[in-house]
Design goal:
The chain is an alpha/beta fold and about 300 residues long. It has two domains: about 150 residues, Quinone Oxidoreductase, Chain A, domain 1, CATH 3.90.180; about 120 residues, NAD(P)-binding Rossmann-like Domain (Rossmann fold, 3-Layer(aba) Sandwich). Helix content is about 25%, strand content about 30%. It contains ten helices and 16 strands. Strands 3, 5, 6, 7, 8, 15 and 16 form a seven-stranded mixed sheet that branches. The chain has a six-stranded parallel sheet with strand order 11-10-9-12-13-14, with helices on both faces. Strand 9, helix 5 and strand 10 form a beta-alpha-beta unit.
Length: about 300
């Protein structure tokens, strides 16, 4: 089979499309024939060696690429032909979802949404799982307030949708040009990224918000908008921001689990979790997709089609 890997860790120009044996599933695993696999910023980080430099994974001769996948079960613990989505969350795998086949633990796989094609279904697993787990970490009650940074991006956009589904009051920040998009996702209040965030938040909520999903990884500049003894979901590896003013800082690094994926599939089927496909590329043109993602400004996912 063909699979995309990073060996030189020198960015999109150095990723390689190799021929390799089709992987075999062990007990508790499934093999998926890949129909579509989204490209995410973490794939760029892996290909450039950023995660090795940050100490989040050990150096190795070859890194597989791709976290999201949608396709059909080909072998393993689920019935053959079942349409599924999956999430490959282990950084150090030598083969991942940017390939013609991928093997995942059964717990990292869920039935695909019945009302979405597999291209659209491949776009939300990683980002929506991250957003859901960030909101779970905040553990807010209906009616409380949450600030979401980077609200036009993959994680931030899904965080807005899910927060509204959980009956939270959402204050969202993104670029000026993204206000209509962010409001369409459900934000109650919008603050342009160019403005002083803590000041603008406290015009709306004088005591500060109850929780923060910092999808843009602003750090202290966003935490200053949180009330004393509030909660902050920090979505990056490495050192976390300090626990100032009694604020609890939860470092949320996504983990694949079937329960969350099933929840998100259900919400996608009912229109709570949206899907946005910016463009599709054949696997052999993956480097073009990676370069386009690196340029920034996309509103939606680029998807590879084996």
């Amino acid at each position: 089979m063909r699979a995309l890997v990073a060996r030189q860790l020198d960015g999109p120009d150095a990723i390689e499309l190799i021929e390799t044996p089709v992987p075999e599933p062990a007990a508790g695993q499934v093999r998926i024939k890949v129909a579509a696999a989204a490209v995410n910023p973490v794939d760029l980080a892996v290909s450039a060696g950023v995660l090795v430099q940050a100490g989040l994974t050990a150096p190795r001769p070859q890194f597989g690429l791709g976290w999201d996948v949608a396709g059909t079960v080909d072998a393993g613990d689920l019935p053959e032909g079942t349409p599924v989505i999956g999430l490959a969350d282990l950084l150090g795998r030598s083969l991942k979802t940017h390939a013609e086949y991928v093997v995942l633990d059964t717990d990292a796989v869920a039935r695909a949404p019945q009302n979405l094609d597999l291209t659209a279904a491949s776009t939300f697993g990683l980002n929506a799982s991250t957003a859901l787990q960030a909101l779970q970490a905040l553990d807010l009650e209906p009616g409380q307030t949450v600030l979401i940074t980077g609200a036009a991006g993959g994680v931030g956009g899904h965080a807005v949708e899910l927060a509204k589904h959980f009956d939270l009051t959402v204050i969202a920040t993104a670029g000026n040009q993204d206000e209509d998009l962010v409001r369409s996702l459900g934000a109650d209040h919008f603050i342009a990224r160019s403005k002083d965030l803590p000041t603008e938040v406290r015009r709306i909520v004088p005591a500060g918000v109850d929780g923060l999903v910092d999808a843009a990884v602003i750090g202290i500049g966003a935490q200053e908008a949180v009330r004393n003894r509030g909660r902050h979901a920090h979505l990056q590896g490495g050192q976390r921001p300090p626990h100032l003013r009694g604020i609890t800082v939860d470092q949320v690094l996504v983990q694949a689990n079937q329960a969350d994926l099933r929840t998100l599939v259900h919400l996608a089927e009912h229109g709570v979790v949206s899907t946005r496909v910016a463009d599709t590329y054949p696997l052999e043109h993956a480097s073009l997709a990676y370069k386009r993602l690196a340029e920034g400004g996309l509103r939606g996912r680029l998807v590879l089609m084996p």
